[in-house]
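CORE FACILITY INTAKE
Project code: CF-77B
Contact: R.S. (postdoc)
Sample description: multi-component assembly, two entities in total
Requested service: structural model of the whole complex
Turnaround: standard
Below are the sequence entries exactly as provided by the requester. Do not edit them.
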Amino acid sequence: MISMADHAVLATSIKPDNIENQRLAIESWLRLGFSVASLNTPSDVEKLRPQFKDVDFFAVQENAQTRHGKSSIAMKDVIAFLGQYGSPICGLINPDIHWRATPAATQFLLEEARNSMVLAHKTEVGSLDDVTGDICKLGFDVFLFDRAVLGTLPASEFRFGQPWWDYWLASCLMLPRRFPLKFASIPFAFGLKGNTSSSDEANQAKYGMNFAKFLDQGTYDALLKQPPAALKSSLETLSLNVAMAILFECQWISYFPE
Amino acid sequence: MIERTMLVTSVAPHNTDNQKLAIESWLQLGFMVSSLNTPSEIEKLKPLFGGVEFIAVNRNAQADCGKPLVYLNDVMAYLGSHGSSVCGLINSDIHLRATPETVQFLLGEARNSIVIANRIDVNTLDDVAGEIYKFGFDAFLFDRAVLEILPSTEFCLGQPWWDYWLASHFINSPQSAPCRFSLKMVAFPFAVHVRHEKHWDQGGNYEKYGLHFAQCLDAQTHASIKAQSPATVRSALHNLSVNVAATVLLQGKWISYVPK
């Protein structure tokens, strides 16, 4: 049987630091048959290509952000890339996520992604051998979706690797509801504790405000009037509300391990 | 001697084949199983459910909801006097799909805590995938000390809202001192349920027990829902249930176990 993973591409953006962990993570995707593509700036591609031989690298234009060491990639570039790549099922995944699932469970997730979008949390573990860990319920680290979804995504200023892109991507399917949104309540996406690079407060606020604007002008206008300390707390509350709204909008799917 | 963990339920007098399979899955995992029922039900059920200890209740909810259901108060009182140090409350048609290691992990997590599982709806027990029912909780494992903080209520097993009420006791609010027990949610496949016609949403019991839940929650919520027209009470209660479910999900620690 041909695995569906053979027809799915996982897009990511490998970071130029902490290479070994990302290599192990990406090997877990490749073993399941996924094609893997990494979008990076030309200078990062040059550094990373020799270290990730089975990954297709695609150079994106540098801009002010990438030039200043913020190697995040514009979501519009990721979306355009996935559209051109042509896989019927597309994935977007943070580069430090280890995929621990059987081929059958992976196949299930890919089937569920047809005409839909499947999203998942990561479980943080102390070591890759751990059988249990902490689920990060605020934020989504893995997306699998039908290529047709790409045509419905509006232009945005969100960046893969910066906060709020995950909430934005999931929310795009809620307003309006053109494709079913599914939450995979199966622990298959693992991240090592201490390997998550936290975003600075300025970017939290910047992209949080972008999200508020995307959500509705009234929310954005109200947040705009707040002093920085109040704004931080309001954005945290907004983030909790959005996470719960997404989860409640989703159909929750589960798969039993063999 | 290793203590066996007690799961308590109330076996329903219908659809016994499915419940038998469900309870066998608990017994196979080493749980001790007790079922609270009326004496007449016990007479019918006892020969069908080997391995289950039946406990007769001396009152039932016939007058309240039209069925001889068991009060949650009686279940909790039984667990208080006979339960193991970690005990469980589970709907009688829930099949547990877990390894002994997974159960040990959950029992460990239940110490000084309450561990709650949503059910996964399947069409048949052979299904390898299913849909999680996020608007209800079907299995609870908890430290027996949890029983000390639970007040008396009118809820009964087999009618809605008792699960929300139980879970809501472990939600922290800014107005009260933090709960001394942790709230944890099972975030991996564990509690399986074969889809069937629902039996609990009959004769206005959703509204009746929903209003009781609102009353237990706070007087203001209760008054505002009660003041609504009959047509809007149901949707107000639905909104309340979504809020409670969301808060439980938000405040609960999601726990995961992946066998090697």
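Facility notes:
- The interface with chain B takes residues 100, 104, 108, 121, 123, 129, 131-135, 137, 185-187, 240, 243-244, 247-248, 251-258 of chain A (CB under 8 Å).
- The mean pLDDT of chain A is 91.
Invoice: internal transfer
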